Amino acid sequence: MVNPARCATRRPQSRVLDLHLTYLFIGHDLAVIQRRMSLDVLVIRDGAAVEYRPAGDLFDDPEQEYTRTLLTAVPPARPRAAV
Fold first, then answer.
1. Are 25 and 33 in contact (CB under 8 A)?
2. What pLDDT, on a 0 to 100 scale, did the predictor assign at position 27?
3. pLDDT band at 37 (very low <50, low <70, confident <90, very high)
4. Whole-number pLDDT of residue 30
């Protein structure tokens, strides 16, 4: 038998489980990664880290020449089709 008083004081399961998740997304399309996929971005060239910064900083003002070259290759955003 369920005790209503006990159920009223129980916290939702999602708050009890404090999960700290990290996702690693590897992609070549910077237009997708740009401010939509990540808080931080790591640029890799020939297996070596070139630049690692918060996404907004990296896309607004890249420090490394290789990162700037990659960003100039990103095509401009296309407007979405009307649904």
1. yes
2. 81
3. confident
4. 78
Which tokens in the block code for residue 11? 């916290």
DSSP for 15-55 reads: HH-----------S-HHHHTTTT-SEEEEEETTEEEEEEEH
pTM for the structure as a whole: 0.61
Cβ neighbours of residue 50 under 8 Å, at least 6 residues apart? 43, 44, 64, 66, 67
Residues 53 and 35: beta-carbon distance below 8 Å: no
As given in the structure block, the two tokens for residue 68 are 């700037």
Cα dihedral: 28, 20, 53, 35 (round 10): 60
35, 56 contact by CB (below 8 A) = yes
pLDDT digits (tens, 9 = 90+) for 39-73: 889 999 999 999 999 988 998 999 999 999 988 88
Lookup result for tokens 């630049």: 51
